[in-house]
Each structure stands twice: as C-alpha cells, then as structure tokens.
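Good morning C.,

I know you're traveling, so I'll keep this short. The sequence:
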Amino acid sequence: MLHTDFDPCKTAIINPADHFPPNPEMPENLIGVFSYKIVDEYVNKLNAVEVARSNTCMGPLRIWKCKWPDGTEFALTMMTVGGPSAISIMEETIPMGVKRFVMLGSCGALDHNITAGHIIVPEAAVRDEGTSYHYLPAAEEVALDARCVDAVCKALESLDAPYARTKTWTTDAFYRETRAKMEKRLQQGCAVVEMECASMAAVAQFRGVDFAQFFWAADSLSGEVWDARNLSALGMDENALYMETAVRAFRYM
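The tokens, ready to paste straight into the viewer:
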C-alpha cells in the first residue's frame, strides 16, 4: 500500500532550505489564519510590514511581520486550504526562521453537543488525508504535542473563553463526507472535521517545530449551527478573541 511507503530520510530531491534561506526579519512565531478577512483586518490594525512572499499560480502569498500591543512579535499569513498547500507554508517558513506555529480557522461540527458555543482545540487528528503519510509512519491518528495543546487551552482560560478539547477528522475530500463515515468518526471520538490538521501536525513532528491549532465551528454535519452568543459576554468580537488567543498561546509554548 502506498500509505505504508514512508521514507524517514530527511533529504529529499527538492528541499525547502535550498530555496528559502534564513530571513533575519522573520519572527520565530507565526499565526496562520484560514480567513483573509481576519488577516486583512490585523495587517491594517497593526501596521504590519511584509517580510516574505511566495509567488504561486494563484498570485503572491504574503507573510507579514506584526507586533501585538504587549510587544509580542509574530508573522501573520493567510493559510491555503488542504493539507498539501497548508504544509507548504510551514515547510517554506521553517528555514526562514519560524519555530512556533499557531493555526486558526473554521471547521465543520460532527457533535453539536460538544462544539456548541465553544472554541475547539484539537489534541489528535484522524489521518483521512494523504500528506501526513509522507512525514510519519502509517497510523490512523496523529497526536498533537500535548505541551502546545495545553498552551492554547491556557490562553483560552486566561480569557475566560469556553472551549472543548477533542479529536478532529482531517479529510481531503469534503464532498465525500458520507453519513457512514461521519458515524465512524464520531465513534472514534471526533467532534469536528476539517482539511489540514493531521497534515500540519505530522510536518511539525517531522521538522521538530511547535504546532497548535484551534477552530470555531462554522457549520454542522448534524444540521445545526454554532451558537456564538457567548462571545458577547467576553467584551470582544470573535476576531479579537481568536487573535488574542493565538498571541497568548506563544507565551506558554
């Protein structure tokens, strides 16, 4: 089987470090957001400076250097959807100098009882995609680094933000999320579904960098929607909460 054809050799035919040299302006922390609206908002709010870009067939992917009001510096970029494209951002910024990643974006809800009104922090991901099998030996799941997961949880707790720590289902094919597959993933303990977490967690392990992620449930395969009304009690809008959480998580990593 191709998925069992893992090669642990660190040297490939094409290596990121050969094409993306160290960048003295690149922060060690990177926040990757699966939302161009959030990225645009905070690039403007923080007067961010572009420090790198990757020229893709869809146009330039820009990486910005930001400074939070408390002085924390971090890189900020818009993530691209799907495991292969998402991990390419990690692979290209690691040789530039990034050591810690916090990724955030939406997900689909499988178990509304767990996800309703909560930010979701994945602690493991079912590997129903292909990318992770090039970075780790074959297995059904990949566990995220517990220390990094704890860092996000501590950040949320410091903000009194409700969250649920659970397992996620990473899939390549959202048009093939069948009812039978959903039921199987629920039995495995998955509360949400998305398209990148397992891939990025595998890359982080392989490259020896810190990685954590959190989600908000944008839709539900059970036919219900996320109740975000609890955020009003926190005195901030959703985007501010997400960004503050990500920045605080770096303090605990």
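Safe travels,
E.
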